[in-house]
Amino acid sequence: MMADRDETVLEREKRQFLKPDDEFSPMPFWFWNDALNDAEIVRQIRDFYSKGVAGFVIHPRLGLSESIPYLSEIYLGLVETAVVEADRLDMKVILYDEAMYPSGSAMGMVVRDDPAHASRGLRMIEQPLGTTGWQAVPLAEGETLVSVQAVRKTAAGSVDPDSAIVFEDERAAQVFRPQGGGEWTMLQFVETYSGGKIRGVYWGQDDGEPGAPAAADLLNPQATASFIRLTHEAYYAKLKRYFGNTVIAMFTDEPNILGRSHRSGLKPWTSGFLDYAGPFGFKEEQLPALWFEAGSGTERARAAYGKAVNARLAESFYRPLSVWCDEHGIQLTGHPGHSDEIGLLEAFQLPGQDIVWRYIEPGGQSLTGAHSTLGKCSSDAARHRRRRRNLNECFGACFKDDIGWNFTADEMKWYMDWLFVRGVNLLAPHAFYYSIAEERKHERPPDVGPNSILWPHYALFSTYMRRMSWLMTDSVNEAKVAILCEEDRLPWEPAVPLYENQIEFNYLEEQLLVSSCEFRGGQALIAEQSYAVIIVDRPERYLEDTRERLRAFAQTGGIVVTIRDEAADERSVADSLRQDASPSLPDADPSRLDSSESSAPDGDALRGAAESSLPDTGRGRIGELDNAAVVSVSELPAILDARRLRSVKLHPVSPDIRVSTVRRGGLTFYLFVNEGEAAYAGTAQLDTNGFVERWDAWEGTTGVQGVLEPGGAALGLGGVCVPVALERRASVIYCADATRPPVRLGEEAGPGRPEAVPDLEQAPMQERTIRIDGGWDIRVELEGRGLEASAASAQGAATLQQVGARPEAAASEAGSVGSGGEVSISAPGSSPLVSWTEWSGMEHFSGAVVYESEFRLEPEDAGGNRVIRLDLGDVHEMAEVDVNGTFAGVRFWKPYRYADISGLVRPGVNTLRIRVTNSLANAYNRASLPSGLLGPVTVSFG
């Protein structure tokens, strides 16, 4: 801050961005999974803090020593040690409410204290009804008969719902004889114990093992009260003085009503649930539809049942936890069991979701399926309820190809950006392991913190998380489009073309549309958001109250767009309702975005196109709506562009670029993320005129961004155009200040002036390139010593001989060290720049190899204002580079490029040292993933 004047808004925001407060730190899951001791707990916390990690989630985990009974004074004393140290460092702690998961049973103690609190389910017993009548199957101890019904089967797995006969008691069923033909069957619906378990924290308590703790009845408020007494009250009694300051939240993890490994064929249930489900539209005679196809009412019955289950779970489990947390000065956080259960996040002061098991992945599914909605699930739940933060438990078991430690920094960066651009603003990395001894390293791997190869440079990652979390906190996204959703269904199909055409949207829950939206001037207003368009997918699913609210919105001038189910025109409504997934989407048509505005329908063309255009599946469900349109998914971008409902327009278009526009502190920020595998180069027109800066959250740089056409309207938005260059795995932020005039491209001046944006589709303009093929000296690092080799030229082989001992971790896992601790290694072929897994004895080596070489520069090459670029080519996986003994930086993903090393070189001979660390999967999983410096290594002058 300048001493002689006040700090401007831009200066303040920039200062906070570059050095975000600790509250924006990641909060990693910290696996407590071994014999814990106070000294090691404190040491690890200080290690976290040194890497910019200012908080953690204490997570009891499989491998915990049996000498530390869960929730005992010994255990709680260790928790207190961690909290006291965190308090000393002004760090934050989130407590975890289970050992291990799913939440709700206090590691089986709820059921131990009262066996009636064990998880329950509903089972169906089917008996074909013959001429001799029916006899009930005897019930086991603890079971309760809920209903006895006779139904006529129409096919395997299908029944005639109109044939259902509900008997008052078993006696009436025993004398029943069906009239007419057909195959009749008798059904008993029985409430029973599910036999479900949770994963425990001690050996022998995992899935399928005899010691696995019993799951509790989460639909029973008395069981929840016991859970709170055993768990929450125990923590509070020990840590009361830290609640609301150091301890900020309690994490509840994917509660599972039936528990894990439960008896097959059950549906979630509890005592008295049939009566509870009645007001949700679920009737006793619909019970068969939970197991059989039952005509056109099947989906309706299942939806009513599902809503009743969720309502009961919220009432009996989530709300009591939420109330307890609120009364004790902390927040309820965590996530429900499914990626799209947005309604259950109502109870969370800090709503969350998780991205695990590669539910989505780079280069794979990231826009399709229910899991593709999880980022928006938590962020939209938060923004519409004025929750300041939302959390994601990320990276858990996101390994590739069934190789437990095969998870790279490249993928970590992709996942981070995927979450941030969707509005997530608190990351809980899964996980930092207290110990990776023995089998612990293989329990939901990998460690993404202290036991990863990234840890020496983890501050780069934690700082990036802080900056991006800061950006997405206390800001309002500029989405003008809402996609209507149910409490347990977030339509992903209409979201695909919006993502691919950089049209921002938010999911708006049906319940919030009815209860919390105000309609004024063609806008739906809720919290800080304002929507001009509401997209309705599968309108037949929504309640009459919802349809009335949509009509009211349309009457104020708002636009309702319904999605035409094109496949439904060719099949019956009944068949349509039986589909579990929507048909494949037609590709979005980018050409529609580049057409002139006159070629797209204008606002008037959207008016009056409502019920007469609806397909049979939708006609009459929404009713007569003013300002409605019925379109296919692929037509959405053109329809929305007619209303100018975007904040950014790219040229050329790219389906891989995601954009989020947020207002913060009087400024407008445009976040661009490249989710693809190729670089992007083009221009972006913004919807703002004014001064622009380009901020890079990874590099920690800011600078004036010259604009191409201040006030131009070539792309239809009327704002400035900026050049955009995004490598794969890159993100960039444009900060716009509408109170100041823009600066023309090429006229930037002063500190922070950005370098010219390169054309990434072509090689940079160069005078010449040096390719470093030969003369490599190679050393395999072993506990500070190494295996040394030399290669005089590209034609010579590299021979490596041992001068040290292998690191313990690599040696114990690789199995390639001889009995005498010696190994002979050679690098075959014409060039040493090949994967070191091709070298004899290095097939399963995990560690670091140092490559050293030289290159010569002429005086004219090293002088003046020349830009000198270093490109390492292909590397696996982490590269640390020194030029002439000075550290040039570290790279974790392609492109392994250094934009300008001119400040490090000199005329004559220059030394280059590249230290490459490969994946730990080679040692820990006996994989042979590509490893090392593969090149080609080039130095370019331009």
UniProtKB/TrEMBL annotation:
<dbReference type="InterPro" id="IPR053161">
    <property type="entry name" value="Ulvan_degrading_GH"/>
</dbReference>
<dbReference type="InterPro" id="IPR008979">
    <property type="entry name" value="Galactose-bd-like_sf"/>
</dbReference>
<feature type="region of interest" description="Disordered">
    <location>
        <begin position="571"/>
        <end position="621"/>
    </location>
</feature>
<protein>
    <recommendedName>
        <fullName>Glycosyl hydrolases family 2 sugar binding domain-containing protein</fullName>
    </recommendedName>
</protein>
